[in-house]
Design a protein that fits this description.
Layout: H1 3-8, H2 15-21, H3 26-41, E1 44-48, E2 50-53, H4 82-94, E3 99-102, H5 112-125, E4 130-133, H6 136-145, H7 150-159, E5 164-165, H8 175-182, H9 188-200, E6 204-211, H10 217-234, E7 237-244, H11 260-273, E8 279-280, H12 284-287, H13 289-295, E9 302-305, H14 312-315, H15 326-335, E10 339-342
Parallel strand pairs: 1-9, 1-10, 2-3, 3-4, 5-6, 6-7, 7-8
The structure holds ligand V47.
Length: 351
């Protein structure tokens, strides 16, 4: 059976199929990815009104791709107090946000309470604000630092009212590449297992993939398949987010940017491979706004949100430091031929 016949008959695709998909031309991939997107979502594109907070950049790990953590490349260290974090949340709530997305570096000096108690402080003050917090990488760091199991940390997250987990820290699961770009932090198996535990506790999460650095196309498909296997088992993922590697201020020293073709192909292939993931998110922060809008024609049905402020990707060159205005965000989606639909953090429609 040819790859086109497999796409026509909507067969589940294998590792070799995924690699072969890259040989198809961009518009053929867009055609098949769009077909699935349109069947499930029509012209709807989801967004949410959210605020990213990155409370500390002091990190005991040194990921080669990271420009955010305080190190030789970024000597400006900071750690916010809970009052400072709550002041940011106060302002954002006044601006109408419905989700705070809190991701920190792996700071060994703050104590476990600093990481955990801020979540319940936010929820006690604003019970309707969704707290999306702690990547699997942070959970693993905290478990090692404080000699607790992953389950213990997850129980603390539940106790402190975390609503869902972000998809960060997945990077690329292939062990050889992972060792080169972020050896020492959460392993691929641990990342998968932490999300499994979180899903089995009745909660939902997202999954990311960092691409465009030293990984191969095969590594990307392998990454997607490991996520697809877990989703078959737990059905706990809401969205898959392919993050385009940003080249500035980090140690990886990648000379060539990905082409727009390769980014859009990867977006479309994500939609085709991940047949059990509801949403594919084109994260405008790393793809650029223009490519995120175009990704709507290549399988993506979600553009994340307004963000307000962002420190991790902007440190490496992304133009996201100050987020985007809601009116502009909605107009861009509308003007590109799609219907902006506000969603909550668990993908219930609000508009
Ligand atoms: O895990 C770090 C990535 C991630 C670079 O779950 C880089 O809804 C590109 O996970 N170039 C954090 N990326 C962001 C993240 C995220 C973003 C939006 C939504 C969600 C969600 C999750 O940023 C890290 C890492 O993979 N990152 N450095 C870089 N140079």
């Amino acid at each position: 059976m040819t790859i086109i016949e497999k796409l026509e008959s909507k067969q589940r695709l294998s590792l070799n199929d995924g690699i072969e998909l890259y040989n198809l031309d961009l518009l053929t991939l867009g055609h098949y990815a769009s077909k699935i997107r349109e069947e499930r979502f029509g012209k709807k594109t989801y967004y949410n009104i959210n605020r990213h907070i990155n409370p500390t950049n002091i990190c005991k790990d040194v990921c080669q791709f990271c420009a955010y953590s305080a190190s030789r490349k970024n000597p400006e260290q900071y750690t916010m107090t809970h009052d400072e974090i709550l002041t940011v949340v106060d302002g954002s709530v006044k601006n109408g946000i419905k989700e705070v997305h809190i991701v920190s570096a792996h700071n060994p000096t703050t104590g476990l309470e600093w990481y955990m108690e801020v979540f319940s402080k936010i929820k006690d003050k604003y019970p309707n604000i969704h707290v999306k917090a702690l990547t699997a990488a942070e959970i693993h760091f905290l478990s090692e630092e404080y000699n607790l199991s992953h389950e213990d940390i997850i129980n603390l997250m539940i106790k402190h009212k975390v609503d869902s987990m972000p998809g960060g820290g997945a990077e690329i699961f292939d062990e050889t590449v992972r060792k080169k770009i972020c050896g020492g932090k959460v392993t691929s198996d641990q990342w998968i297992n932490i999300h499994k535990l979180w899903h089995k506790s009745g909660h939902q999460s997202n999954a990311t993939m960092l691409f465009g650095h030293i990984e191969s196309r095969e590594n990307r498909i392998d990454h997607m398949l490991r996520l697809r296997d877990l989703q078959d088992e737990t059905n706990g993922f809401n969205s898959f987010i392919p993050l385009v590697y940003q080249t500035e201020n980090n140690y990886l020293n990648v000379k060539e940017d990905l082409t727009a073709q390769e980014i859009l192909k990867t977006m479309a292939i994500s939609r085709l491979m991940l047949d059990n993931f509801p949403s594919i998110k084109a994260y405008w922060v790393t793809s650029t706004v223009k490519l995120a809008l175009l990704s709507q024609e290549f399988g993506a049905n979600d553009l994340d949100g307004t963000i307000e402020k962002e420190s991790i990707n902007s440190a490496a060159g992304a133009a996201s430091a100050n987020g985007m205005k809601l009116t502009e965000f909605k107009s861009l989606i509308k003007n590109s031929g799609f219907d902006p639909v506000e969603r909550d953090s668990l993908y219930n429609e609000l508009d």
